[in-house]
Specification:
By secondary structure, the chain is mainly beta. It is 3% helix and 47% strand. The chain is built from two helices and 25 strands.
């Protein structure tokens, strides 16, 4: 199994199915967790030195921070309803308390921060949408914490790739701290399939092939992209969702396409 692939598992008694840390990923910025709660269960998430974007992946919840609270937020029961999520952003030293009103899945996205921006609710109407690509390279993007919303390091986005289509394609990378030509961003991909017994493929490779991994991802898999190009393909019959979390020294998404495959853009 690829060292860049984290398969889903119940790693604690409280329903955490994914936990990626800078230590486990051997990088510096991105932390990522996924938690599943039954109705009536509660959890508290706190951090002294990281900003947090908690994405309600599916379900309804009451959410409380140090100074604010929101009742019964969340709207979709599945990511494939093609509705934007509710999310909560907090700076360091602010805790998020969650009570599940239904079966609930939440993603905890984190990166180092000093506390520049306040706690806030990110509603579906605050997200921005775009469709990228054409033909079998078309995918649908929902920006949760991107150019639509300020943060210190975090970039958070969802993508739906229709069955038989490709995304993160042509292959691109963002692993060089060389602005304005390219930025350096670590990235996680949290995958879901519809129907959930499906699979998809993600390749992660560098120019010198020091990394060259092709990964068969399953429902609730996480792929870590420390560097290199990272295209994704969804087989016929299986719709693919993924939640991306990115962070690096500068909060700018400036990517470079693989020169060998950039001709595809002109063809489209």
């Amino acid at each position: 199994m690829s060292y860049l692939h984290s398969r889903p598992s119940n790693i604690d008694d409280a329903g955490c199915i994914q936990k990626i840390t800078p230590q486990s990923a051997n990088w510096q910025y991105v932390s990522f967790e996924v938690h599943q709660l039954a109705a009536g269960e509660s959890k508290i998430f706190s951090s002294d030195d990281q900003e947090t974007c908690m994405v309600i992946v599916s379900g309804l919840a009451d959410v409380t921070t140090a100074q604010q609270s929101w009742k019964n937020i969340g709207e979709r029961m599945s990511v494939f309803e093609k509705k934007a999520p509710y999310s909560v952003y907090t700076p360091p030293k602010d805790a998020i308390s969650v009570i599940a009103n239904t079966e609930l899945e939440i993603a905890i996205c984190r990166a180092p921060a000093v506390g520049t921006y306040p706690t806030r609710l990110i509603k579906p109407q605050d997200c921005s949408y775009e469709t990228r690509g054409t033909g079998t390279n078309q995918r649908h993007v929902c920006n949760i914490l991107f150019a639509n919303m300020e943060a210190e390091k975090l970039l958070v986005v969802e993508v739906i790739t229709p069955d038989g289509n490709w995304s993160s394609y042509p292959p691109h990378k963002h692993d060089s701290d060389n602005l304005p030509l390219e930025s350096s961003l670590e990235e996680t991909y949290f995958h879901k399939l519809n129907p959930e017994q499906g699979f998809a493929f993600q390749r992660v490779y560098t120019d010198d092939r020091s990394i060259d991994e092709t990964i068969s991802v399953e429902n609730n898999s996480v792929v870590m992209v420390p560097e290199g190009y990272h295209p994704v393909g969804a087989p016929h019959g299986y719709e693919l969702y993924y939640l991306n979390v990115m962070a690096g020294p500068t909060r700018e998404w400036v990517f470079k396409n693989d020169p060998a495959h950039e001709w595809i853009i002109n063809k489209d």
